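Annex B, item 7. Sequence and structure tokens for protein A, then protein B.
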Amino acid sequence: MSQRKVVGIDLGTTFSAIAHIDAYGKPQIIPNTETERITPSVIFFDDSHVIVGSVAKNNAVAEPEKIVDFVKREMGKPKDQFHREFGGKIYSAEELSALIIKKLKADAEKYLDQPITDAVITVPAYFNDAERTATITAGQLAGLNVLQIINEPTAAALAYGLDKLDENQTVFVFDLGGGTFDVTIMRIVDHKIEMLATNGDHRLGGKDWDDVIVNLIAEEFDRLHGENPLLDLHSYQELHNRALAAKIQLSSRNNTIIVYHHGGKSVKLTLTRKEFEKRTRHLVEKCKTICEMVMQEAKLKWDKIDKVLLAGGMTRMPMIRAMISGLSAVPQVDQVNPDEVVSRGAAIQGILSILNEEDISGEKTVDDSLRQQFSALDGGLIEVTDITSHTLGVVLWDQRQLQEYVFPMIPKMTPIPAVIRNSFGTADANMQRAVVKVVEGESTVPGECTPLGVCDIQLPPYLPKGSPVKLTYQYNANQVLEVEVQAAGNNAKVTIDRNTGLAPQEIEQAASGLGELQVS
């Protein structure tokens, strides 16, 4: 029996983690070579040597121009919108993320003393098509077979719910990390985990709370000394470190003293938890609004929620816990480590994916004892049903209004994988071609949606107006879309121009370029 080793990776904005399933069928965090259970998502470029993690983070103040952090917020962007240049080479968000994954992979192989072949990587539930594709690419560039992309709240629920599958319950997952925020409602019924609704903001996270403190210190420094320390990159890194330490202290204390030095001058200020909560109330309100929105989407009242599951380091803040307590009387679940729960759940999904592959191929790579632990009472595998986090539509022509509009092919919250077919008529007689524009978003106005791709299909001559054009939207478990168009005997597939940093032909070149770098 050939052994495959699968891991779960939480590729986070501020910290990343990697987990595996041990010989007893339990998800375990794999510590890095620095013996830390989570690795800072910070990259330090030192010529052909790349350092990822705490050492890189500690170098941020001394050499900030050689540092990359918060790269997750840039995932899915084309190179002309985001790139970083080091040693004459230009790196996309995928390539930078791949370096973080390479570090996690190498450390895990050293710890487990075996090669790692496969991975499940997590993403915020609200990541769109381009961001998901970029995450898959990052895993591939790091030398992994990416079995699946899984939503972070889904992974958290898996880690929490694996030993509770015999209790039917509705779980509200609140996931606030360093750079992204997700809320997902799921139902555990008869050994199945079903997503009911999801919403979020992938540009809201702990960094926004940090920045409030950063600006407060900078304003006080400017007031005292007539100089803005934010204009200096070195000083910003130092400011950010001070702010982060203050934020963490205010989770367990009522006040903290911040001392900051810059250019031979200094400032000292006392920040109380009350003042910090007042200055960040707008961020908490954003979280609250999204919580209420997702409850409306699920058509649920708070008394129907059985458990509130907290994930992400920011859920340690008293202001966040107080906000959630104000919404729901349900106790918050604390028996899971918010920094580790997502990677543990991804490792569980990794085993489920491999077992599922075995059922299809008939080739065994996992011990029977392990299979039993991940099976429901009837012997079948535990089922996880995810939902679409965005609506996927097609742009049509409204003959009456004489304008374009978006028709929703796969509405938000549709269970996935999904295959949806629909038929439309040509707008005019004798049309030479049918142009199919595929978009993602909740609006019916094309300009307010994200374009995903265009298919231009040739039509035979003399077709009457209203001739059928058949569309098939196929949405896989990774929430990546394929579209097929049929018209008058002609077939075409839409090439989804995801507008990400790397085109398919560039991926191989990027992989070989990253291979030349020494990552530690």
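Protein B:
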Amino acid sequence: MTRLLYLSYGSTSLDPDEAVQTAVRHVFTSFQASGSAYGVVKFFATNGLQFPKRAYGGVWAGKLIWGTLTHSRVLGILSNPAYTGAYCFGRYKYRKRLDNQGAFKTHMVRLPRDQWEVLIHDHHQGYITWSQYEENLLQLQQNRTNVEVSGAAREGCTLLQGLLICGKCGRHMSVRYTGNGGIQPRYECKQRWELGKTCTCSSIRAEPLDQAIAKRIMEILQPAELELALLSLDKLSVQDHAANKSWQLALEQSQFEVDRAYRQYDLSEPENRLVVRTLEAKWNEKLLALGQLKEEYEQYKTKRAWSPTSEDRRMILRLAEDIPRIWNSSTTLMKDRKRLVRLLLEDVTVTCHPLDPDVHLGIRWRSRHSELIHTKKSLPPSITRKHVPDTVEHVKELAKTMSSAEIADHFNKNGCRTPEGRTFTESSIAWLRYRYKIPGLVKQSNELTVKEVASKFNVSPGVVYYWLETGKIQGKQLGPGRPYRIIIDEPTEKALSTYADTSTKILKVRGSNI
């Protein structure tokens, strides 16, 4: 273990080598910055840093060896509670099982925390706190790709990958690329695939959702632009300073080894040529190593992030006020946008229906605040060929006073056509009203049907139709075979009452009914 040393009298302390301590701290700070173990490996590789390990046993026992930091090594460090200053025993256990041939196989399993035999907090000095250790474990768990969590930001052209939840079944939605060459990403509920596409869960193009969430984030970020810019600059400066410190420590260590080799060479007896040649070769070897390290450091400095002056800071902060421009810049990577989204959002619940353009997005922010926003999605081509959204809204207004035939006639007279260039018909308007549940004409309080008029004057419906044909009353029919809507004013009502009471045919029918 390179991180901690077990002293001869039974106690534990940090490795006294400052370079070792710095390298270990880089693991935790870079993990906090990147959010993934691979991000830590990338940080070390990008900055040309190495990680130490101490050899055990043999002639190299106790020697410090520097090498490349691996992903498995990072996982081991992040999951080890010893870095918090805690002493634990019994984290792993060997278990036996029978294989297909009846032979015993032994394998090691990691036990849950409540099954550890010993756990003593604050046993020794640590690199991080226990709460930070638990947060790191939670982040590692969320980064797993075989569970339904958002995880760290990954490659891809979709903004909300891993953050969307189906509003129908509550499961996380995945990304599927469709179209010629897979250039059209869609968010789809995983249950659609597990059930053989037989369920009616959500499936929607990614573009309208990404645009709606990005717009909302820009609105939220407006008051906090300067603060975010300052935090970004400070974070960049801290990371750069940490990497540079590791280089300085490595140079200091290499220079120390050169000086020690020179002292050994200088103290040797000149007559003992065998010893002198050996020490001189070792001194030259250390000089070459120091020279190579300095060259690598000079190359690293050319790749270092630019450190702004106070005036530069003020200029950058003025530029950072235009966050939408930075967000939309071609130099801003989609992965950076995703990381920003994950800093702000917990998840987004999507509710949509196949033939409905309205989409409801339930946003849950990291601050535990929730809100509901709305957006629109494009309809299938089979529907968009028949009408456009403006046509639907126009039909909704006209349907309050017109029938389907009258609406179609109104559109045709005003030169309106379908997206395919066809004229409107009564059946096409009727389909629109059925598709979008547009109600028909609402019967007014002073309008009467044929049956209501017949009951009012105590006559048969045939008499009412006769009055309509002869013009004694006026009625409006919405279409052939459709019911009449009749309005009778006071003079007409008196005349019809007199006619019904004096007509011999009507009186004869009344008498026969008695």
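Comment on protein B: Residues 450-513 form one domain.
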